[in-house]
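PROTEIN–LIGAND DATA SHEET

This sheet pairs a single protein chain with one bound small molecule, magnesium ion, given as SMILES. Inputs appear in the order they were entered. The predicted three-dimensional arrangement of chain and ligand is reported afterwards as a token string under its own label.
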Amino acid sequence: MTDYTAATRACTPKHSSMIDLSGHKPFAQGSNRKCYTHPLDSSRCLKVIRPENITARFKRQSPIKRLLGTERLNDNAQEIRAHNQRVLTRLLEKGDEGLLWAHLPRFYGSVPTSLGEANESELIRCADGSVAPTLERLIKEQGLTPSLNLGIDEFLAWLWQTKILTRNLLPHNLVVSDRFDHPRLFLVDGLGAPTIPQALDSVPGWSARYIKRKIARFRKRLAWEQSDEGLSWEDFQGLR
Ligand SMILES: Nc1ncnc2c1ncn2[C@@H]1O[C@H](COP(=O)(O)OP(=O)(O)OP(=O)(O)O)[C@@H](O)[C@H]1O
Ligand SMILES: [Mg+2]
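PREDICTION REPORTED AS:
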């Protein structure tokens, strides 16, 4: 079933009948989803859930949390909820699409595929047509160059300006495109907040405090990605 969220009203899926992904190879995958180039439009991608992962995560949950079911572990469902957050809906209503999609891939909702429901979104590419690399890869390959730092500062300023809610920002969930005058970051995964924080976003000052914490944590994470102390992320956080 095609699911149109508020944020997808302006953008619709390429195709609403079943898309056959058999014989196609994902261009990337995370721990929860496999990402395919849309067979009918190479400027879009389709993300399908890796069901084995939901089962494994469910088994690790406490009995209380298991009562809440597996749906809350479905990253595609979470992403749709994330696109329904108040700020995004407001930006769309105001027609502020340039600002909204400046650092987010355009989102087209859910479409049926031979591998189950997929979330369809813009596939972020580089000037030469290749899929944009993750910030994590670039930091490993070249370190935090001044131009990459500029891209990071611009992304964080956008987050602060828009007050779009995100989960913990992780360098493997940000991709970097060179199609602009300096590297531009796009958040390809990790939009939104858990149910209660997302519901509190109309409380004055609440979103600002939430985002401030996410930005501070991300800065710490970048310091960890660059450090050669050999500490785990947990130990690194504890020490600072
Ligand atoms: N819109 C996009 N444009 C370019 N590359 C993308 C896009 N979406 C995802 N990718 C690539 O695919 C990888 C996996 O995608 P994604 O992060 O959505 O999967 P996931 O399983 O939800 O991740 P996680 O392991 O963080 O839960 C990303 O790290 C990125 O390299
Ligand atoms: Mg990811």
